[in-house]
Amino acid sequence: MTLAYNRALDGLRALAVAAVIAAPSGVLVAGRRVPGSFGVCVFFVISGFLITGLLLAEHERTGQLGVRAFYRRRWARLMPALAAVVVLTVGWLLATGVPIRTWWAGMVGSLGYVTDFLEITPAYPHISAYFEWSWSLAIEEQFYLVWPALLIALLAFGLRLGHPRLPLLVVCVLVVVGAWADRAHMGAVRVSAERLNFSFDAHMDQIAFGALIAIVSGGRVLRSSTRRVLDVAGLLAMCVLVVVTVHDQWVRRYVLDPDGYTQVTVLCVLVVTALVVAPDGVFARPLCWAPL
C-alpha cells in the first residue's frame, strides 16, 4: 500500500477550515451562522484515513511500526504551533487584564490535550472561548496516542487468523455502531450541549470511518465504473453537506441525533471516499485548485 499526496483532500481541508473559522467570527451565509462543528467532522474523517493509511503503509513496507518516530512526528507537527498560539493568547489576556481564574483551565487543557474532558467537568467555566477551540485538537491527540498500539495488536491478531486486516475492520465497525448508539442515548436522555459536542465518544465514529476508508481502499484498484459512481456520489454528498451547513436545522430535528452528527458523518464519508478512490475525478478537480 502506498499513500500518495492527494491535492483534493487538501482542498477539502481548506473548505473545512473556512467553515470552522466562520463559526466564531460571526460570518453569516444566507443570513445564518455557519456551524463550525460540521467542518471539524470533515477533519476527523480525513485524519482517520491519513493516519491509518500512513501506519498501514509503513507496516507493509517494513513489517513493523515505529511508534516512537510516529509520536515524534505528531509532536513536531502540532506542538510548536499550539504553543505559539497559547503563549500569544496568554500574553494578550494578561496584558488586557482578563482575570486568570476565568481561563487558566483552558490554558492547561490546551497544552495537555485534554480540553474535551474539561468541557464536561466542573472546570468548564474556566476554559472560556479563548481556549475552547482546542477541544478538537485534544481528540486528535488522544486518537494518535491510542491507535498505533491498538493497530499493532490487531494486525498481529489478524496475521494469526490469516486475514491481517479483518480485526481492524471489525473493530472500526464496532466503534461506528457504538458511537451511533451512544449518541442516540445522549440525545434520548438530553445530556448537556458540551457533552454532546465536545466529548471524544461523540466523534469517534468519524475517525473510525476514516480508518475504514484506508483499510478498505488501500492498494486496491477499483473498476472505472465504480470510481465514476463514487465520484458522482461524492459530488452530490458535498452539495448536500454545504446546504445542511447553512441550514443545519434540517439535520438537528431528531431526538436520537440532536446535533445531526450521524447524518453529517455519512456525508463526510462519501465525500472523502470519492476523493480517495477518484483523486482525478470530476469532483476532485475543483478541490485541486492551487489557492485551496
Would you spell out the secondary-structure blueprint of this structure?
Layout: H1 7-25, E1 28-29, E2 32-33, H2 36-62, H3 67-95, H4 104-112, H5 115-118, H6 135-161, H7 166-188, H8 193-198, H9 204-217, H10 224-246, H11 261-277, H12 284-287
Antiparallel strand pairs: 1-2
Helix pairs in contact: 1-2, 2-6, 2-9, 2-11, 3-6, 7-9, 9-11, 10-11
What key attributes describe this structure?
12 helices, 292 residues, two-stranded antiparallel ribbon, 69% helix
Characterise the protein shown here.
The protein is mainly alpha-helical. It is built from twelve helices and two strands. A two-stranded antiparallel ribbon has the order 1-2. It is globular. The model has no long low-confidence stretch (mean pLDDT 88).
